[in-house]
Amino acid sequence: MIRFEQVVKIYAGGQTAVDDLTFEAPTGQITVLVGPSGCGKTTSLRMINRMIEPTSGHISIDDEDVQSVNAARLRRGIGYVIQNAGLFPNKRVVDNVATVPILLGAPRSQARTRAREVLELVGLPGDFADRWPSQLSGGQQQRVGVARALAADPPVMLMDEPFSAVDPVVREQLQDEFLRLQRELGKTIVFVTHDIDEALKLGDQIAVMRVGGKLAQLADPAYLLAHPIDDFVAGFVGRDRGYRALTFAQTPALPLAAEPTVPLGTTPQEARAATRDGWLLVADHGRPVGWVEPEHITAAIEPAMLHRGGTVARATGPLRAALDAALSSPSRRGVITDDDGILLGTVRAHQVLEAIEATDRPEVDEADIAPAGPTSRADR
Amino acid sequence: MIAQVWRWLVDGAHWQGGTGIAQRLLEHLEYSGMSVLIAAIIALPIGAFIGHAGRAKWIIAVANAFRAIPSLGLLFVVAMWFVSRLQGDAAYLVPTIIVLVILAMPPLLAGAYSGVSEVDPAARDAAYGMGMTHRQVLTRVELPCALPLIFSGLRSAALQVIATATIAASISVGGLGRYLIDGLANSDYTEMAGGAVLVAALALVVDGVLAALQRLVVPGGLRTARSARRRRRASAVTQASPTG
Predict the structure, then answer these.
(1) What is the ipTM for the molecules in this complex?
(2) What is the pLDDT of residue B237?
(3) Transmembrane stretches, by residue range (chain B) (predicted)?
């Protein structure tokens, strides 16, 4: 657990970067600091590993004040990932990743073995280790940056906009892999971003900061979407809050209708015989692959003639995915599968909406009704 | 004229003995090598420190201003001061070395300074953030990354020193400058031209050796980074040029 207690940072010019910041980043969870530029989120992050020293207040990791430890030694025990990866161009990828183990005194060969393991973990197996950083794409460099931070297996990781310098497709991929890694590793992570969607996607709890270095609200994503504490937070969290909140609502048991399916290669006659209305679902070994209109086919069904517009939702996934499956399906019947992607049945939009109606929203915290100041939802 | 110079150069008799070309080449290399070495020992740590700390940048400016001093004039001033204080050859050799050291320092300082100060700030930030001490950041990240610029400073210093070491002959020290000074005195232009060719050839050879050393010493990642940039520039140029 990382604890901020009344932390203040005033720069030499008299500018207040962080103003009386108090919060906790719980062990094994991702705490995202988010806010517009100039809100002090990066300054706050960098005070944890003493890259910046606070003007007053205390920061502790597992109840040990960071000020009581030698700065270099403190940092070797904390993973650190930054925006442009900051790889050392003079070292091969494997030696970049081996940096902290070597600083901690590990023999070079052992550190390199460990480095290769971690590179595999972040999806850079084999010969990537022997490349130079300049031979990698931005996304690959960022993966190396994460591997380098993980190499010494630190319990705490600090990540400063690690995915913001890569293109949106790669960013999404890196975020998904990051969440998968975190499920395995369970690090205590403080993550800085200016992107509220990234914060909502990655954060177990989110600290929204406002210009001047004040904490505006600390809450989990669903609560933040349901109950932004003021106009600033509401504006920052953005539009479509109700719809986006469905991302965090678990799908209850939906009334699934059995859906007849045909395999690929079905003839037009067979397809027309199997259809109940204009659309027919095609499945490959139980996995839905797309919709066809039997009226309009003249040959055996092949992948190229499938309608791909409909999304597929897992029965155990978020309500947003179930609703989207129904809304995007050309037959208006949303395809629901189990976790292995095997078809369970279909559901219509109004049935998903009924399920949504019956779902509890995050209840507003008493303290947030008449707020006296920055509020904490960390205990939720 | 070219044929005459060529004949002068390949005449075996010119290469032998205490005043032969071989001896002069060795002397020339000796003065130049010693000067660059001393200059490097002084300038590289200072340049690297200024680049690392980001302080005392005025030293670079002052060193650059030294480039404006004419070497020959400086040589006479320094020699006059030393001639009454030192005995024998040293009275002329020491002033020569001092002048050449002063000449070699600005490019070495600038190379080390800009090499270290231009290290990617993200790499430097990551280095500190992972728990490197100042010394570790300097020796493990900044200096290796600065090597290409340190080498270009070194090569530029070596070229200037080899070219300028000829002036040593004007205060009766040896080296290839002898052929220029003596040739001028005797109106032997063949000898002068031969001496000039030798200086140029020596400069080229030394530069070649340093370039080879650079390839050996500079980490491959820095080479590929530069050649990748060059390739990108080249392809940008070809794309920009109108077709047909």
Answers:
(1) 0.80
(2) 44
(3) 31-51, 58-84, 90-109, 157-181, 193-213
